[in-house]
């Protein structure tokens, strides 16, 4: 009880800092998609889009995920039962909370991330370890979800749309970026600081910060830059991608 209360107090303090705000979230949306933030710390994002092959979600937020999912899907004329695919950038608790409300979907996730998503392994990052020790959170049981583990860059065909996945290990062992409709969803390998703007992953929350930086450099090298117009962090910070942006997230 004491540990849970301590963590909740810390989270309240985090909610008060400027990084809990969104930034240019509108850049990720169009007439058939919506980006929302859940009410926990750091503005964890849920992105939803209607495609010819059904509704997809990219990340599932944290506190209040069910309400935000329902609200966002209603704007698309859909319900949680209509979500066909969930693409997870990584399995930190603040990006997976809504999994219990879309169990019928197929969950796309980096293969190295699966044991962390299911609770069979623990992350090494300092602040993540502290949070996990203080307060447990629900993990899917074996066989409870349909998982699609990714071992390499993969393209998913969704009617007229495609979702391209790119392995970017470092922030977590199985961190994955997704390119959809010109928007790159980089998870927490892309971050934004009020005092410095866009940067790479935060060291205290990352298992291997050096590997994360190297993964982003490799990603820029293999991406078709003409197809990437906007990039968003998993905490609802979006920016237009140019050479300055690409260089910033390597720091």
Question: Brief description of this entry?
Answer:
Helices cover 23% and strands 27% of the residues. It contains 6 helices and 14 strands.
* Straight-line N-to-C gap: 38 Å
Strand content: 25-35%
Q: Helix and strand succession?
A: HEEEHEEHHEEEEEEEHEEH
Number of domains: 1
- Characterize the quaternary organization of these chains: single chain
Low-confidence stretches: 1-18
Tell me the Rg in angstroms. 17 Å
Alpha-beta classification? alpha/beta
**Fold-level CATH name:** Metallo-beta-lactamase, Chain A
CATH second-level architecture: 4-Layer Sandwich
The CATH class designation is Alpha Beta
Helix content: 10-25%
Largest sheet: 6 strands, mixed
| The CATH homologous superfamily | Ribonuclease Z/Hydroxyacylglutathione hydrolase-like
Main β-sheet, spatial strand arrangement = 1-2-3-4-5-6
Number of strands: 14
Number of helices: 6
Mean pLDDT: 92
Shape: globular
Describe the protein in words.
The protein is α/β, with parallel strands linked by helices and 251 residues long. The chain has one domain: Ribonuclease Z/Hydroxyacylglutathione hydrolase-like (Metallo-beta-lactamase, Chain A). Helices cover 23% and strands 27% of the residues. The chain has six helices and 14 strands. The N and C termini lie far apart (38 Å). Residues 1-18 have low confidence and may be disordered.
């Amino acid at each position: 009880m004491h540990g849970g209360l301590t963590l909740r107090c810390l989270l309240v303090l985090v909610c008060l800092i400027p990084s809990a705000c969104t930034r240019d979230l509108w850049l990720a949306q169009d007439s058939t998609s919506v980006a929302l933030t859940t009410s926990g710390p750091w503005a964890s994002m849920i992105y939803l889009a209607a495609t010819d092959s059904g509704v997809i979600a990219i990340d599932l937020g944290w506190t209040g995920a069910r309400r935000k999912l329902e609200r966002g899907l209603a704007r698309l004329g859909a319900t949680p039962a209509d979500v066909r695919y969930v693409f997870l950038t990584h399995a930190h608790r603040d990006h997976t909370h809504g999994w219990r409300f879309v169990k019928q979907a197929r969950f796309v996730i980096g293969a190295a991330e699966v044991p962390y998503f299911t609770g069979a392994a623990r992350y090494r990052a300092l602040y993540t370890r502290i949070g996990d020790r203080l307060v447990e959170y629900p993990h899917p049981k074996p066989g409870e979800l349909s998982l699609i583990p990714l071992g390499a860059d993969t393209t998913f065909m969704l009617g007229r749309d495609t979702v391209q996945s790119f392995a970017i290990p470092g922030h977590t062992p199985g961190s994955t970026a997704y390119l959809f409709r010109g928007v790159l969803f980089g998870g927490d390998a892309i971050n934004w600081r009020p005092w410095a703007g866009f940067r790479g992953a935060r060291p205290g929350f990352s298992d291997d910060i050096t590997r994360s930086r190297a993964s982003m450099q490799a990603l820029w090298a293999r991406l078709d830059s003409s197809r990437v117009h906007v990039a968003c962090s998993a905490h609802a910070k979006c920016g237009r991608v140019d050479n300055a942006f690409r260089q910033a997230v390597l720091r």
